[in-house]
Amino acid sequence: MTKKASTLKHEDLVDEIVTRYPPKVARKRRKHMVPVNPGTEQKIEANARSVPGIITQRGCCYAGCKGVVLGPIVDMVHIVHGPIGCSFYAWGTRRNQGKAREGGQNFLEYCFSTDMQPDNIIFGGEKKLRKAIEEAYEIFNPKAMSLHATCPAGLIGDDVVGVGQEMSEKLGIPILGFACEGYKGVSQSAGHHLANNGLFEEVVGLDDDVETDKFSINMLGEYNIGGDSWEIERIFEKCGIKVISTFSGNGAFEDMSKSHNAKLNIVQCHRSINYMAEMMEDKFGIPWLKVNVIGLKATSKSLRKIGEYFEDAELSARIEEVIAEEEAAAEKEIAPIRERLQGKTAMLFTGGSRAHHYQFLFKDLGMKTVVAGEEFAHRDDYEGRKVIPDIKIDADSRNITELKVEPDPERYHPPKSAEEIASLKKEGMLSNYDGMLPDMTDNTILVDDITHLEQEMMIASYKPDIVCSGIKDKYIFEKMGIPSKQLHN
Ligand code: SF4
After folding, report:
1. Rounded CA gap, 68 and 73, in Å?
2. pLDDT value of position 3
3. Do 372 and 462 have their domain in common?
């Protein structure tokens, strides 16, 4: 079967879509849509404010900090300081899976909120926050907590960071305050950055008492949505690679505090965690490597890259054995499905890099991704890290502190020589991400911060066989009679 094309050429479709907007909005949105022409240098606008009223799928800064990065850490109590609505969304649609470590704790099933009421908004809510911390401490006795500010808490000036420090001294456990009010930044992305800064400053490096393994790694930007980290860890373990800590799916405070002892950081979701990868390299000398562990071929490729990095013949041989075994088992299951899926098309609208990673999985199945986009990506997530020096830093990004990190005088131990690392960086193996755009094919569209109108018009033109997106927009596709699969949950 031939692959389905859009009823309109991709460029004409994008031009047609923007005619529906007022001229100023049309000019702005046109820069966020790229009809892909492989082999040419193309540019996209990203990480800019959404047009008010346009129906964006984005989340807020609090969603990025609590919902994405901190929330999946199982052995911390995460208290949301705000009205119950902010907490309910982050808990009621709980998507991360987690298990307690042996003899440890797991608070993922709980929703901790100060449940701010009108009188707290008028007279201040810090008193209520202190009380909530004490209550949670008495009932659950956690080894650490995090506090998350929401818009109302920030607007009245409640100081969650200050309250966290004060209560930390009083109770004798780390209590990390995050001033991640929803309105900061332009999307969830600001919250990821804040969360990375907090974890890096307060947790990473706390525990030096660990035996380091020859092939020890941290898995960054993997959130155990649906239990994927468990499957990935199973494969790593089979290869003889030890995962010290995952940031942050099924993550644990105690694992993260030891994570500075790893020999390599692998990065799955580049956007949400690249700050941590860079800061850990600056302070402890741990290099980072971009991987994709979604899809059979992509996972095998990533495993081989890890083997190549460690330059150990025994490890590489074991990796090849595991790949052969796992691919053969998976192929048995996939083969009959692949036959039915030949030539089918998909659209992918996700928060971050899943829109990139899933294209490989669909390719394994004989399908083509015709439109893809992310909610909170920056230009480097689309065009590759080579564009970072050209990205204009605007007021919204300046809102989030860029930490200045120096090498740790005692614990900066790069696992390879400076020359070797520099050469691997030059080759593009380390500290590199080429972005999603180079992997998209002809007559496809890359779209940033997509709107409902754009989704509807692209679906009408491409008639995809499946749309994979998030909780906010999936109902539109279901009403249109198109199979939809949430990729956030
Ligand atoms: S935007 Fe503000 S009010 Fe809405 S969920 Fe985020 S923090 Fe809460």
Report:
1. 10
2. 47
3. yes
Report if residue 201 sits inside a domain.
no
The one catalytic residue among 46, 48, 61, 63: 63
**What's the domain range around 151?**
61-185
Looking at the structure, do residues 274 and 396 belong to the same domain, yes or no?
yes
Cβ of residue 151 lying under 6 Å from some atom of ligand 1: yes
pLDDT band at residue 399 under the 50/70/90 scheme: confident
> What is the residue type of 381?
D
SS3 assignment, position 286: coil
In order of 156, 292, 358, the CA distances from 346 in angstroms are 45, 19, 10
Indicate whether residue 178 lines ligand 1 (CB < 6 A): no
pLDDT, residue 471, reads 82
Is the beta carbon of 150 within 6 A of some atom in ligand 1?
A: yes
% of the chain exceeding 70 in pLDDT: 98
- Bridge partners (DSSP) of residue 144 are 76
Beta bridge partners of 34: 446
Same domain for 70 and 177: yes
Same domain (yes/no): 16, 133: no
Pair 164, 276 in one domain: no
Instruction: Output the six-digit token pair for 265.
Output: 């950081």
Residue 378 corresponds to which tokens in the numbers above? 């920056």
Residues 374 and 313 in one domain: no
Residue 15 lies in a domain: yes
**Mode of pairing for the β-strands spanning 33-35 and 445-447:** antiparallel
Convert the pLDDT of each residue in 302-356 to its tens digit: 999 999 999 999 999 999 999 999 999 999 999 999 999 999 999 999 988 999 9
Of 94, 101, 413, 452, the active-site residue reads 94
Catalytic residue selected from 78, 192, 378, 488 = 192
What is residue 1's predicted lDDT score, i.e. its pLDDT?
39
Q: Report CA(89)–ligand 1 centroid distance (Å).
A: 10
Q: Are residues 120 and 260 in the same domain?
A: no
Residue 94 is a catalytic residue: yes
Average pLDDT (97-107) is 94
Q: What number of other Cβ atoms are within 10 A of residue 457's Cβ?
A: 17
Residue 160, domain member (yes or no) = yes
The percent of the chain in helix, strand and coil, each rounded to the nearest 5, is 45, 15, 40
173-191 pLDDT, tens digit per residue, is 999 999 999 999 999 999 9
Q: Are residues 273 and 135 part of one domain? A: no
Compute CA 300 distance to the chain's CA centroid, rounded to the nearest angstrom. Answer: 21
Per-residue buried b or exposed e for 348-380, using 16+ beta carbons within 10 Å of the residue's own CB: bbbbbbbbbbbbbbbbbbbbbbbbbbbbbbbbb
Domain assignment of residue 386, yes or no: no
Q: How many domains does the structure of the chain reveal?
A: 3
The backbone torsions φ and ψ at residue 78, rounded to the nearest 5 degrees and listed phi first, read -105, 110
Query: Which CATH number covers residue 241?
Result: 3.40.50.1980
Residue-wise pLDDT tens digits, 125-173: 999 999 999 999 999 999 999 999 999 999 999 999 999 999 999 999 9
